[in-house]
Specification:
It is a single chain. Helices cover 3% and strands 35% of the residues. It has 1606 residues and is mainly β. It has two helices and 114 strands. A hairpin with a 5-residue loop joins strand 90 and strand 91. The strands form 38 sheets. A five-stranded mixed sheet has the order 1-2-9-4-7, with no helix packed on it. Strands 12, 13, 15, 16 and 17 form a five-stranded antiparallel sheet that branches. The N terminus and C terminus are likely disordered.
Length: 1606
């Protein structure tokens, strides 16, 4: 490892090397970085705005290849060819710019590129473009704006340039774009662009593109075909209609332009493409497909409500739809319907009134989510066959507004109905460990099932024949995968049966042998009960419960419980847990038990706080309190005269280490001694984690477990208010409530320790008493064995403690016994605290009121005596100036202006044994004295930050320095310079000095200057602006003054400058003394050969230089538009010659440069126009034939206005109409069409034929109900069946009885499906569903009855009016009670009075719980709630009233009387430094500024300070008087004992030395510990790194790589 010094040396050398190389290292992207999202090579990518990108480079957004583009961009890029005559082509390889489906910023885009063909935005706009995710994402609402990978743009401007402007809004930023830039000669035949397709049907599509050519070749084929293998169409126009396509198929096409080669032939452009489109889906029909509305390559629509009916083409056949792909959104809850969010409903018939076969959904071809209703699952392979006579299936599809899936695809087949159609929609549900319910869809009623473990060979499995649907398989193995097949058993029409093909396999897996219950829950918790519930398919359970944390096996067991189960006999406000186990049938007549699930925890309800109960926050035992709470709870004793005590057992209320909401608490309890919040406040309290967490910043607010509060109110009540803020809710509190007569001497409460030092602590508590005994010792001492302090007041400061030691203390109140003596209360405690370190070091050092010679020092400390050491910044501790016995704050004097200083401070503490110890010293804290105005006398000129700090930002200072002696001149010489260089104005300086020659800024500017790091840092690009150490400026003004103005921006601040000011008489003034020179200086006294002169046509420029003008023969402009070839004449004037040509601006060959018309003008007449090259284009004249481009006109000719127009031919233009007119050019609305079964009559009219459903005659005597079919043919049906109307299967539509009638006899009934239901007959045994009856039998068809046993005595509590046989169970106690409605314990449910009624008399009242509250009677003492009264007693009307006691009621007054109830104006107060005496009077103490004695021999001028403490100032002249000492002070007159000598310990501030000591020269040095010197190996690493770095720098220079500032 390289040590710190090695690393420092290495970093310094690296910095110097980089500076030498001219490399600025910023956050850059290197070409060899692996490209991220855009997957391209990053070579030659330039990302800066308007950066030059060479032909053959790459064009990206400002985010580069790794990042999205910026928000709110407005960036312009122009690319021009390297070679004149070439043109730029930009081809996009990646595109992701935010599109819009509406509300766009421009042309369907939120963010967009505008592409101009030329070198700026005044050039023609080619396109506004955007597109998401390389064309696969969002498509702009304006299709022409879509930009995709593969799109390209070629300049058609004369300069060959392309200009791109990128604009983005402030929201979503895409990944941007990547494009290749190529340059070359303009193509002889330009490629088409903007390929697109429209009007796409099942078999055709219109193809379009952009091109100036008129003839094109197209190659097309299935999507992904290889160019050269597709179908080619040559010489087509634009647009082109492609036909002969297949439905639901994706196609690609390419387009190549055919251009005139200039030699009578054609050449072909490069081909553009592929462009992809997909043909429309064919309507679902036999042999076709049934696909969702999104087609093969899209998802279905949101909020869909679609209906599709599929009928067979051939009457008598039936439709079967077999799904090959399914992805329809399911739900694990109820969803919209049957466990589906989106769903297909399948009806067997031609509309939705037909029978519903299934509601279905399923995700990801059956591999994704399963709907919560298992019968709704639709998967690939599932099929549906119509059971309707018309053979049709109807599908409705509904989707919600979210999460659209890919949809479905299905094959449609049509065939005659099977003699016995197989079942469909196989499902397994209610799967247990040994059973599963199987179901399927079929119109039949009898089925055979074959099943076995997954993978069995059909025919080798277990057969179950003649079952119904659904069917429950039993006797299965747990945790085993099974599969099954189902075959329908059909009537063969000849008295026998046939079996259908079998459907399957359908797979399911059994559960564990006895699955454990899940989802344990608890509801309806009361003080004594709770409802338990869980999830399980079983019905028998064992429960074990107990208090939270009980050991399983040790709780209370409940066997044979049901679900849910109500647990009773619980205790209020108690935490419980329970476990539950399922009891399952083992399949062999026995039972097995599952694993037990739990524990699940809950708590019983908290009763209202009362004597003997708990007091708990609103969250109860197992929850935190509410946020933003504002709650009030009053607890009063049950027995008059008792008082309430609340003892906290758990506390977790949010504290604050700042002010909090109140008294160092964010959330807090306020405890009042009385029945409301007008009662005296005992404490505001909070505390985290049972007192072990955070402590509130106000120590007296701390609430901990063990703290208690006892009412001091006559009514014995305590009132609690709780407030919480909106954040960080804690667990709250729990407390015990006890009620008892008040103690003769109540113990203190709320013990606290604060202001804890190393040897002392202030103890406080809450009590109405004034005298107390304290016992204390180290933590864990035995009460009675500690140190006693008797007769103290509250608070009390313990002294003489050991530092860093844990103590605890007890406090006992000393009360008046009423007989002239005292009694001592029970003692409260222990309360624990830990003393601080022996002498804690001061903190928060600060400096204020800095002048040129003084500064006020201050710090934070509980001590009052301090030692200070100070000196100039960087001084070595021990070598500075020491001040002993200093107070806080302390004013340091005798300082030097504009100087940086540091100081250290150490606390001097009492060691508890009559001596002193010193703390660690804190520091250094740096400060600087004020800066004096620069003068010749003080000779100092520094920036506004002084010598110790940087100058201020946004400075605008002006300083004028003038000599103090008339005739002298000021010279300012800079010793140090560091001002921020850079910028584009003002001499390339961000921060700068302007130096004026004189006493104001209107005088001559000598220099405009800046420079970084004393000239070694940044150098301004304007060399004249560089200011460095050693530069000087001398006034040449008459007043000898120099004026400096300083300006700084708001960013980087430098260290500024330091300069020396001197004044002296002026020296001789050098300059040009020749009055004919351009730079003649009238002030110069000696010529310095600097004169310059104007010669030839040159002239002086007025600023001491020469303006270089053109000489005779040089070209010029004489300003005369009629001349050409202007040149400078011999007299230095400019003149030219005239230019002949056509000067008529309306002529085709008008010459703007001509100055004289030469008669050569030519003009366009009639419909002719100028050709743009000075000639005339001969156009057709009025009456000539032409083509107006309108297919609806004929006989087109040139009109008088030179336009081309023809005439229209009205008629029917629709080729499918019966009266189509091929000669018509404009449709006149006369078309007529054949619809339904109608046909054209051949004469332009329609023959009206019968429509499907109309009656007809098919000519077959064996059919009935002949009607027109869907194919317009006529057909009927035979109708065999049961024609007996009394039969269960009577068929009203049957025309021939086929002997199939069946009849119901006895109690049997007909079923809805035409079969006979075998019902029990009269006398058969049955179950009437009433558990109270026995001997149930059928008494009449459909009626089951038995004997009811119960209590038949109408006067009994349990009388049963339905009972027919008395069982001796009558009882007469449960309904007995008090029936008097005026009694306190009146029971509205009681029907038998048991003489238990109790009544309230006198002032007593009913307590609401059936008892009587014994209230005080007239004359008894009470509390009327009025703090201004005493002697309160019960009045005749049972109210409470008392009398007032006058006195001083202000608790801040010296004579405050706590017994007074009404203030009589007698209060007296202590002001200033006065204090209250024990007798209630004011003690007159000395006031601030009065003299006193602080008890120190080292101070003088002692006086009362602002804090009323006596202190003096240190006596001047104290110091080390030993001339041999290192810190000898020759000015000292009193030796203060601080002398240090060679050999004394010191600190040289070098972390790599040890045993630092003062040397013979008084310097502080230590012995090197070896940790700061690199080893030989480490030096080798350093040298190798430098060699590699310099090789890198050499490479950078050779490749001319520029790493610019970002």
């Amino acid at each position: 490892m390289i040590p710190k010094t090695g690393l420092y040396l290495l970093s310094s050398l690296l910095t110097l090397t980089l500076c030498y190389a001219g490399v600025q290292v910023y956050n850059t992207h290197y070409a060899e970085d692996a490209p991220a999202k855009k997957n391209i090579s990053t070579q030659n990518v330039q990302n800066a705005q308007n950066a030059f990108v060479q032909c053959g480079g790459t064009f990206t957004d400002l985010g580069g290849v790794d990042n999205p583009y910026e928000a709110n961009s407005d960036t312009t890029y122009t690319f021009c060819p390297d070679v004149a005559g070439d043109v730029v082509t930009v081809t996009f390889t990646f595109v992701d710019m935010e599109t819009a489906t509406g509300g766009e910023v421009q042309a369907g885009c939120y963010d967009f590129l505008s592409i101009y063909s030329g070198s700026d935005t005044s050039a023609p706009l080619q396109e506004t473009a955007c597109g998401e995710l390389d064309g696969d994402g969002g498509t702009p609402s304006v299709p022409e704006s879509l930009l995709q990978a593969g799109d390209f743009f070629i300049s058609d401007a004369a300069d060959g340039c392309l200009t791109f402007v990128f604009s983005s809004d402030g929201s979503v930023q895409g990944e941007g774009w990547v494009a290749d830039i190529t340059c070359g000669p303009p193509p002889q035949c330009a490629q088409p662009t903007d390929l697109s397709s429209s009007n796409v049907t099942q078999d055709a599509a219109d193809l379009t593109w952009t091109s100036d050519e008129t003839s094109f070749d197209i190659e097309w084929g299935p999507a992904g075909f290889t160019p050269g293998t597709g179908t080619t169409v040559s010489g087509v126009g634009n647009p082109y209609s492609l036909s002969g396509l297949s439905a639901s198929t994706a196609y690609d096409f390419y387009v190549c332009a055919l251009c005139d080669d200039g030699a009578g032939g054609t050449i072909s452009s490069d081909c553009t493409g592929p462009q992809t489109f997909t043909t429309a889906d064919a309507p679902p029909a036999c042999g076709g497909f049934f696909i969702d509305s999104g087609g093969l390559d899209g998802g279905y629509e949101a909020s869909a409500d679609e209906t599709v009916t599929i009928c067979p083409d051939v009457p008598g056949e039936v439709v079967t739809v077999t799904f090959t792909f399914v992805d329809i959104e399911t739900s694990t809850a109820e969803g919209v319907q049957d466990g589906c969010w989106d769903f297909l409903s399948i009806y067997s018939g031609s509309d939705t009134s037909s029978p519903l076969q299934q509601t279905a959904c399923g995700e990801l071809d059956g591999d994704g989510s399963t709907p919560s209703v298992a019968t709704s699952l639709l998967q690939a392979g599932d099929f549906f066959t119509s059971q309707s006579p018309d053979g049709c299936l109807t599908f409705t599809f509904s989707s919600d507004g979210s999460a659209q899936k890919e949809g479905w695809a299905a094959d449609i087949t049509c065939a005659p109905p099977a003699d016995c159609p197989p079942p469909s929609g196989l499902m397994a549900s209610n799967i247990g460990g040994s059973s599963a319910e199987l179901s399927w869809a079929s119109a039949e009623t009898t089925f055979n099932i074959e099943y076995d473990t997954t993978g069995f060979t059909p025919g080798m499995g277990t057969m179950v024949n003649g079952v119904s649907n659904p069917y429950t398989l039993t006797g299965l193995m747990p945790e085993t995968s099974y599969e099954y097949y189902v075959c329908a058993v059909c009537d063969d029409g000849a008295g026998g049966t046939i079996v259908s093909n079998c459907t399957g396999p359908q797979t399911f897996t059994t559960d564990v042998a006895c699955p454990a219950p899940t989802d344990l829950a608890v509801a309806n918790e009361t003080e004594t009960s709770a409802d338990l519930s869980w999830t399980s398919v079983e019905s028998n359970f064992d429960i074990e419960w107990g208090e939270a944390g009980f050991t399983p096996g040790m709780g209370t067991a409940v066997s044979g419980a049901s679900n849910p189960f109500t647990l009773t006999g619980l205790t209020a406000a108690t935490a419980y847990e329970y476990y539950v186990c399922a009891v399952c049938d083992d399949g062999m007549g026995g039972q097995i038990k599952s694993e037990c699930t739990g524990p699940f925890s809950f708590a019983t309800a908290v009763p209202p706080p009362m004597c003997g109960g708990p007091f708990i926050d609103s969250g109860g035992l197992d929850g935190g309190y509410d946020e933003s709470a504002n709650e009030t709870v009053t607890i009063c004793p049950d027995v008059p005269g008792d008082v309430v005590t609340v003892t906290f057992t758990f506390v977790d209320i949010e504290t604050s280490n700042g002010e909090g909401v109140q008294d160092g608490c964010w959330d807090f309890l306020s405890i009042y001694s009385g029945s409301d919040t007008s009662s005296p406040l005992q404490q505001t309290a909070c505390g985290e984690l049972d007192g072990d967490g955070s402590t509130p910043s106000v120590a007296t607010s701390l609430l901990q477990a063990g703290d208690f509060f006892t009412s001091q109110s006559p009514d014995g009540c305590l009132t609690f208010t709780f407030s919480s803020d909106g954040s960080a809710q804690k667990e709250g509190w729990a407390a015990d409530i006890t009620c008892a007569p008040p103690a003769d001497c109540p113990p203190p409460s709320g013990l606290m320790a604060s202001n804890i030092g190393g040897s002392s602590a202030e103890l406080s508590w809450a009590s109405a008493e004034t005298t107390f005994n304290i016992e204390y010792d180290t933590t864990g001492f035995t009460p009675g064995m500690g140190t006693m302090v008797n007769g103290v007041s509250n608070p009390y400061t313990l002294t003489g403690l050991m530092p860093e030691t844990s103590y605890e203390y007890y406090v006992c109140a000393v009360c008046d016994d009423g007989a002239g003596g005292t009694i001592v209360s029970n003692c409260t405690g222990p309360q624990t605290f830990t003393t601080d370190v022996a002498c804690p070091a001061p903190t928060d050092l600060a400096v204020a009121n800095e002048t040129e010679t003084s500064a006020d020092l201050s710090w934070t400390s509980v001590e009052s005596n301090f030692d200070i050491e100070w000196g100039e910044a960087g001084f070595t501790p021990g070598m500075g100036t020491a001040v002993s016995g200093a107070s806080n704050p302390f004013t340091l004097t005798g300082l030097t202006a504009a100087t940086a200083y540091e100081y250290y401070v150490c606390a001097v503490c009492d060691d508890g044994m009559g001596g002193q110890i010193k703390s660690e010293c804190t520091g250094p804290l740096s400060f600087a004295t004020a800066i004096p105005a620069p003068t010749c006398s003080n000779g100092v000129f520094v920036d506004n930050g002084g010598s110790a700090a940087d100058y201020a930002s946004s400075s605008s200072d002006s300083i004028t320095i003038c000599p103090e002696v008339a005739g002298d001149v000021v010279t300012v010489t800079f010793n140090f310079v560091d001002m921020e260089t850079g910028g584009t104005d003002d001499g390339d300086c961000y921060d700068f000095l302007s130096i004026y020659n004189g006493s104001g800024t209107i005088d001559t500017l000598q220099a405009f200057a800046c420079g970084e790091l004393d000239g070694d840092g940044g150098t301004p690009s304007v060399p004249e602006s560089l200011l460095q150490a050693g530069d000087s400026f001398t006034s040449t003004a008459a007043d000898g003054c120099l004026t400096f103005t300083f300006s700084s921006d708001s960013s980087v601040q430098g260290e500024g400058w330091e300069a020396t000011v001197s004044c002296a008489p002026p020296a001789g003034v050098p300059g040009c003394t020749d009055a004919t020179a351009c730079n003649y200086d009238a002030a110069a006294t000696m010529d310095d050969n600097s004169c310059v002169f104007a010669t030839g046509c040159d002239v002086c420029d007025g600023n001491g230089g020469v303006t270089d003008n053109p000489e005779p023969g040089d070209t010029c402009d004489d300003g005369d538009a009629t001349t050409v070839d202007d040149v400078i004449q011999a007299d230095c004037s400019c003149a030219g010659m005239t230019a002949p040509g056509c000067t008529n601006a309306t002529a085709c060959n008008f010459d703007a440069a001509a100055t004289v018309d030469d008669g050569s003008c030519v003009f366009a007449t009639g419909c002719d126009v100028c050709d743009g090259n000075g000639g005339v284009t001969d156009n057709p004249e009025p009456g000539d034939t032409c083509d107006d481009g309108d297919a609806t006109t004929v006989d087109d000719v040139i009109q008088a206005d030179c336009s081309c127009a023809g005439m229209t031919a009205p008629g029917c233009t629709n080729a499918t109409a019966c009266n189509f007119d091929a000669a018509a050019t404009v449709d006149d609305g006369s078309c007529v069409f054949a619809t339904g079964c109608d046909v054209c009559d051949g004469n332009g009219g329609v023959t009206d034929n019968p429509e499907p459903g109309d009656t007809c005659d098919d000519g077959d005597a064996t059919t009935v109900d002949d009607v027109i079919q869907a194919d317009c043919s006529c057909a009927g049906m035979t109708a065999p069946g049961c024609t007996n109307a009394t039969a269960c299967n009577f068929d009203a539509a049957a025309t021939v009885d086929d002997g199939s009638c069946v009849f119901a006899t006895g109690c049997d009934t007909c079923a809805a499906d035409g079969t006979v239901v075998d019902n029990p007959e009269v006398g058969d045994a049955c179950d009437d569903g009433n558990p109270a009856t026995t001997g149930d039998v059928i008494t009449e068809c459909g009626v089951c009855g038995g004997v009811v046993i119960g209590c038949t005595d109408a006067s009994a509590c349990n009388y049963n009016p339905d009972a027919t046989q008395d069982d001796g169970s009558c009882e007469f106690t449960s309904c007995a009670g008090c029936t008097d409605a005026t009694a306190c314990n009146y029971d509205a449910n009681a029907t038998i009075d048991d003489s238990s009624c109790v009544f309230a008399t006198g002032c007593d009242v009913c307590d609401g719980n059936g008892g009587v509250t014994d209230n005080p009677e007239t004359g008894d003492t009470c509390d009327d709630g009025d703090a201004t009264t005493v002697g309160d007693m019960i009045q005749a009307d049972c109210s409470c009233a008392g009398t007032t006691v006058p006195g001083c009621t202000d608790a801040t007054a010296c004579n405050y009387d706590p017994a007074a109830t009404a203030d009589d104006g007698s209060c007296v107060f202590a002001t200033g430094c006065d204090t209250c005496a024990a007798n209630g009077t004011v003690m007159d103490n000395p006031e601030v500024g009065e003299s006193c004695d602080d008890g120190s021999d080292n101070t003088e001028n002692d006086m009362i300070q602002s804090d009323c403490i006596c202190a003096g100032t240190p006596i001047q002249g104290m110091g080390c008087m030993d001339a041999t000492a290192c810190n000898y002070d020759p000015t000292a007159t009193i030796d203060d004992g601080t002398c240090t000598f060679p050999g004394d310990i010191c600190n040289d501030n070098n972390p790599f030395t040890v045993n630092d000591a003062l040397q013979t020269d008084c310097s502080c040095e230590g012995i090197d510990d070896g940790s700061g010197v690199p080893t030989v190996g480490e030096w080798g690493l350093i040298i190798l790194a430098l060699i590699l770095l310099n090789l890198g720098v050499l490479y950078i220079r050779q490749t001319e790589m520029k790493i610019e500032k970002a």
